[in-house]
Amino acid sequence: MGVYAYERVLMHIREMMAKGEIRQGERLPPERELAERFGVSRHSLRQALQSLGERGLVIRRQGSGTHLMADSEGILAREMACLLTGSGSRMDALLEFRLMLEPGIAAFAARRITGDQLGQLEQLVERQATGQGGFGDLDARFHGLLAEATGNVIVREVMASLATLLDESRSPVWEHPERAACSLGGHRAILDALKSRDEHAAQEAMQAHLESIRKTLVCNGTG
User: Which of 2, 39, 164, 205 is most buried, by CB atoms within 10 Å?
Assistant: First the structure.
């Protein structure tokens, strides 16, 4: 089983719990249904469930399927935190990638952003502050608009082609009230730097924003 398959299973179970589809102590749906829903093979699913069982998150009972343990929420939080702190994890790699790329984008955006684009960013931040729209959508639009503001066609094309990958870090699995507040504060700092046309400040604000998001996710264990 690859690390990514394990992460997918863990994240989807977390999402099911967050949505109230399954609770501590309850039985998980049949393996065939889970494999199809999670986008992994049944073999990978079984291996992932075995690993989760070894960690105390689930228990597999002969004749009655796989059940979440009564104290699974705390164990799940620790496992989710490990996805962020593990050097080989997909989420850790994704956050590192964003740290490599997006501070530079913010710096170029500060140099080239138009008044109309600044206005659009202000509207997005205002909508985020007042809870108008989903977190993931508003966050993606904010960062996407920054890529457009660089005026570099390659940057725009690369960011557009990576949209699905980058959206993994905005999945509902990682949502948490503290992350929303942290994201809003970061976006405001970036916007202030852009208004001042301060490339260095914009780069630093983006760096601080992404690092604080990562810290928030790790501290909450869920995002």
Answer: 205
